[in-house]
Amino acid sequence: MMHDARPKVGIFGLTSCAGDQLQILNCEDELLRLAGRIDIVDWVMAKSGNDHTCRLDIAFVEGVVATERDLETLRQVRARTSFLVALGTCAVWGGLPAMRNDLPREVLEREVYSGAVDFLDTVEARPATDFVPVEYRLPGCPIERHEFLHLVDSLLAGTVPELPAVPVCFECKTRENLCRVIYFDDVCCGAMTRGGCGARCPSHGVACAGCRGPIEEPNYDANVQMFATRGISWREIATRMSNFSAPVWMTLGLRSEAHHDDH
Amino acid sequence: MQTLRLSDHLLPEFVESLKAWGTLWAPVERAPGVFDLEVIDDVRRARPDALRTILPFKKLLLKPRFTMLTGRLGEIPEDPGEGRHGPQVFFGAHACDIHALRILDLLHLSNFQDSYYLENRKNLMVVGYGCWPDERCFCASLDTSTADDGFDLFLTPLEGRMLVSVGSSLGDDVVRANPHLFEPATRQDTREYMERLGARRKAFTLSLDVTDLPYVLELKREDPVWREIGARCLCCGSCSMVCPTCSCFNVVDELVPQSVGQRVRLWDSCLFRDYAVVAGGHNFRADRADRVRNRYYHKQEAFVREFGVPSCVGCGRCIENCPTGINVVEVFGHVRGDL
After folding, report:
1. Cβ neighbours of residue B300 closer than 8 Å, sequence gap 6 or more
2. Is pTM beyond 0.90 here?
3. Per residue in A128-152, pLDDT tens?
4. What is the mean pLDDT of chain B?
5. Contacts of residue B55 in chain A, CB cutoff 8 Å?
6. Alpha helix ranges (H) inside chain A
7. Is B233 within 8 Å of chain A by CB?
8. Which residue from B231, B257, B274 is facing A149, i.e. has the nearest CB?
9. In this complex, is the C-beta atom of A30 within 8 Å of any C-beta atom belonging to chain B?
10. CB B157 within 8 A of CB B129
11. Which of B236, B274, B317, B320 would you mutate first to test chain A, the one with the most A CBs within 10 A?
């Protein structure tokens, strides 16, 4: 990647909770070990003395584009780096900030800030991957630490890891959890969500919220029909499914589904 | 084959004695009415009467995920032994499980011997337990509702006691090591066993017509029913995971911290989209309906053509675990045009 020195790395946040960057910090000892092999030159959240203009070998970008400034930051990072990683579900799928894209921004601003502020320049929240090409997508809300470390180690070895493409149900079943749909009539997003988390939520008795984003070919119709057949209201289905990948589900019809009950 | 009797009150001592032969596994009630196969310390937790465990015993032979090799670049990789389980005892095998074991043997030991499977299989003691069917059992249709062999010991519960069939020299060793637990079976035991057998045969409520099924399937390859089922299937893979004979696996290379490489073997399912992707990116079964059809055809057509028996034992796990309620018996009924 570099002729003699360690690869130069930048880590950036767009509109987001910074949870993925926090996960990187949570790597602690492993991060210290990595610091000997990579040169983190630009990471505003974690260090001072950053270089905001140098060329980068690897850049990680967390978050959605929800302001004009986000877009500008994203384009600058893209221009600076040869390898761009969309870090976390916001950057890959839209995540929480895109949950209510069905409501106009004026309504959201009024409801959240009571119209008392005028500094907002928000636009519809969309994932970073909608605006620039990326070399790698690392989903998760937040990302899995081991997957991040695995990615960096692999990049240093000149390759990229193959993330699990199987649904959460695979990991859930191998852990022999009670199915949240069958035994609890939950809106469990496991069958449409990409695994890799070890089915953490169902293993703790909570339905999958879909935080790692959709599998390659989710059977949207069969999933929503399954929930509806179990007597769950359409509004509930839409609310639960919209948490992390709303832009995808909205394209597939969830927006109209959400208003089924109104008629 | 030798037949003995064991009093109910001696069952805990008998189960305890099995620990001498390996790690003892038995069904345990994980939640009300839901069981899984666990390593047993307190033998009172064992529930051999449980009809189905979430995952079948196949996890004792090949774990859902294990590291085959680990090593650094330039070094000879080593087998960390994760896939080799040592001596194990499976207490609470039902007739369908024993037939499933035979199917797994055909698959793993016929053409190419799977060394992990072979080693764990040789180290597995099977202690069967007579079950009573529920509304999801259809083993009687597949001739897997009783087992003539394929076990070391088989316990059939009668009133206050069990009839014990000794099915192998290993089973005989267990009896000889615990002579105080067993008595010779009486004529009364035989009579009750026969009564139970007759009553059990009548207790089945679900049946699958397997007459000429491989050929019927060949004729119905393009039947619209496969599209209909494909539209309902989530491709979550649950049916494959819980199936006692589904054995597909994937092998992936991973780089773990400190630049240690590892080769991992994990369960897979033909229902997953990337299952039939080959080099160059072509997917032989990119269509969901094709994948669903493939699973049923493998069970009831391809396996019969290759090994002479279907690779379904009628345990009902896939019926119990399908979140959208796809039912294998109904599927084949639809294919025949019965429904």
Report:
1. B210, B213, B214, B217, B310, B312, B332
2. yes
3. 999 999 999 999 999 999 999 999 9
4. 95
5. 173-174, 176
6. 19-25, 29-35, 68-80, 88-93, 105-113, 145-156, 168-174, 180-184, 200-203, 220-229, 234-252, 254-257
7. yes
8. B257
9. yes
10. yes
11. B236
The number of beta carbons lying within 10 Å of the beta carbon of residue B72 is 11
Match 């399908």 to its residue by tokens: B322
Structure tokens at A47: 């260090």
CB nearest to B254's CB, from A161, A183, A223: A161
Q: Residue ranges per domain, chain A?
A: 8-156, 168-262
Rounded to the nearest angstrom, the minimum Cα separation between A187 and chain B is 11
* A142: preceding bond cis by omega (within 30 degrees): yes
The size of chain A, in residues, is: 263
- Minimal Cβ distance to B323: which of A156, A162, A226: A226
Contact in structure between A199 and A224 (CB atoms under 8 Å): no
With beta carbons less than 8 A apart as the criterion, state whether A260 and A224 touch.
Answer: no
DSSP structure string for B261-277? EEEEEEE--TTSGGGGB
pLDDT digit string, tens, across residues B86-126:
999 999 999 999 999 999 999 999 989 999 999 999 999 99
Alpha carbons A112 and A47: distance in angstroms, whole number: 32
What is the C-alpha separation between B288 and B294, in angstroms, rounded? 10
Residue A2: pLDDT band (50, 70, 90) is very low
Q: Is B231 on the interface with A (CB under 8 A)?
A: yes
Q: Is the pLDDT of residue B339 over 70?
A: no
CATH class in words for A8-156: alpha beta
> Mean pLDDT lowest for which of A188-197, A244-253, B23-32?
A244-253
- What is the mean pLDDT of the segment spanning B12-32? 97
Q: Is B206 left (phi over 0), alpha (psi -120 to 50) or beta?
A: beta
Q: What is the pLDDT of residues A77-106, one digit of tens each?
A: 999 999 999 999 999 999 999 998 888 888
Task: Identify the H or E element spanning A10.
Answer: strand A8-13
Say if CB B55 and CB A174 are below 8 A apart: yes
Q: Which residues contact B38 (CB under 8 A, 6 or more apart)?
A: B25, B26, B27, B28, B45
Residue in B59, B235, B254, B320 to test binding to A, most A beta-carbons within 10 Å = B235
First to last CA, chain A: 59
| B54: closest chain A residue by CA | A176
Residue with tokens 């979430």: B54
Picking from A154, A178, A219, the nearest residue to B234 by CB comes out as: A219
